[in-house]
Specification:
Protein name: Alpha-ribazole-5'-phosphate phosphatase
CATH class: Alpha Beta
CATH architecture: 3-Layer(aba) Sandwich
Organism: Acetobacter aceti NBRC 14818
Shape: globular
Structural class: alpha/beta
GO molecular function: phosphatase activity
Largest sheet: 6 strands, mixed
CATH topology: Rossmann fold
Number of strands: 6
InterPro entries: His_Pase_superF_clade-1, His_PPase_superfam, PGM_Phosphatase
Pfam families: His_Phos_1
Strand content: 15-25%
Number of domains: 1
Distance between the termini: 24 Å
Radius of gyration: 18 Å
Order of helices and strands: HEHHHEHEHEHHEE
Length: 232
């Protein structure tokens, strides 16, 4: 019945003024579909791997096939696709395309990389507390201000990701863009959209294969969804 009402009243689906919460996403909007890469293999999960190029978990690739299929159905068919230089994002993008979306070119964009942990990359989680200069975040081993030697803090990541989003929004206005990225970078994207600080952004849960949708309207950002789990 609801579908029949929508079909009978197409004008009601159009945005009125600045009201954007229509039943369907409006076409011709600069929109980013941000997906966190799939689960990495077990040994990598025991450490802080940051920008290390660790492989995906092969068992999860099989077990989570329904999630790839749900993402393939959910994503816009005419989107531009971006990945990071790390194989886990590229492999995830390929798995989504192979699950029914169809093959599309993948553009490598380093601006969406995970937080660079410098000398601390590869350390077991238990070794972090004794190295910190600041209190750890409640939901992350590092605070937003903590910068590992030779690495980035989350403030740096927010600035990098924000610049990348603004640049792509200007270059590909009114296009849909699928970005397969990392948990830290997607939190940074939310920080940019909402104009919140790095520590506040770390309160977001961004799970593997989750979808976060951001829109840019004349330089003003809007969050459509965050940490949406496909097929659940």
């Amino acid at each position: 019945m609801a579908s029949a009402v929508l079909d009978a009243c197409p004008e009601e689906q159009k945005n009125q003024g600045n009201f954007l919460d229509a039943p369907r996403l409006e076409k011709g909007v600069t929109r980013f579909w941000l997906i966190r890469h799939a689960l990495v293999e077990q040994n990598a999960r025991a450490m802080m791997y940051g920008t290390m190029d660790v492989p995906l978990c092969p068992e999860s690739l099989v077990a989570q096939q329904p999630m790839y299929e749900a993402l393939a159905r959910r994503l816009p068919s005419d989107a531009l696709w971006f990945v990071t230089p790390l194989s886990r994002t590229q492999r995830t993008a390929q798995a989504i395309q192979n699950a029914g979306y169809g093959e599309r070119p993948l553009t490598v964009e380093p601006g969406f990389l995970e937080q660079e942990l410098g000398e601390w990359q590869g350390l077991p989680h238990a070794e972090f507390p004794k190295k910190l200069e600041h209190e750890p975040h409640y939901f992350w081993p590092l605070s937003g201000e903590e910068r590992p030697p030779g690495g980035e803090n989350m403030v740096d990541v927010c600035q990098r990701v924000g610049h990348t989003l603004s640049t792509l929004a200007a270059h590909h206005a009114k296009r849909d863009m699928v970005v397969v990225s990392h948990g830290g970078a997607i939190r940074a994207a939310l920080a940019h959209a909402l104009k919140i600080d790095a520590d506040t952004a770390l309160h977001f849960s961004i799970q593997n294969l989750s979808l976060t949708i951001l829109e840019c309207h004349d330089g003003v950002w809007r969050v459509v969804t965050a940490n949406e789990l496909p097929g659940i």
